[in-house]
Sequence to fold (213 residues):
Amino acid sequence: MSTDASKMNIVSVNWAAGAEPPYAQAVANARLVALEIVHFMTQLDYKRSLNYSKTFHIIGHGLGAHIAGYIGKLMPIQRITALDPTGPYFANMPPLVRLHRDDADYVDVVHTHTQPYGQGYKDLIGHIDFYPNSGRFQPSCVDTYVKLTSLKRGDLQLGQTLSACSHKRSLKYYIEALIKPECEYIGVACPSFKDFVKCCGTELKRVFVTIAQ
Fold:
């Protein structure tokens, strides 16, 4: 895939109305959104003769990461980038109902706000998983714990989003890496976070941790 931004076409999917509380309904809506995206991509392939398995890179944040997984289960995809995949209702579930590394030729994941106190998925889920700042809480973020599964429709005002600074930081890290490729993140490859602590110590608060499978 070309890294030249001038040679890319970007399609943004706005499913804000379907992502509103209650959380269980948003999770259910995710599958419908995936089907609609698959239909759109199939039409592009049919009308424009695009080989989507070689041209599409799907990027999903939160529930969008699992939507990307559903798409990959239905059609061949070259790459999926998952930005802090949502954890509740997906943790400890089989690959059929969540993002899995078999959903694309290459799946990379950035974890920034993992459970039990965050919104994100904690365990290894891609070909390579990144855990910035231990993948729990991000610098300068003041995160208030919100139980997603307890939210009801109407709890949020129109256009209001949850205060989830660490959860959203994954998106900012990704954009920063794209627009400033000369500023490389520091990474340490370890089979687990426990091994990372044993190797590097807990005082390294700002290191970009890489967990490779």
Confidence is low (pLDDT under 50) at residues 157-161.
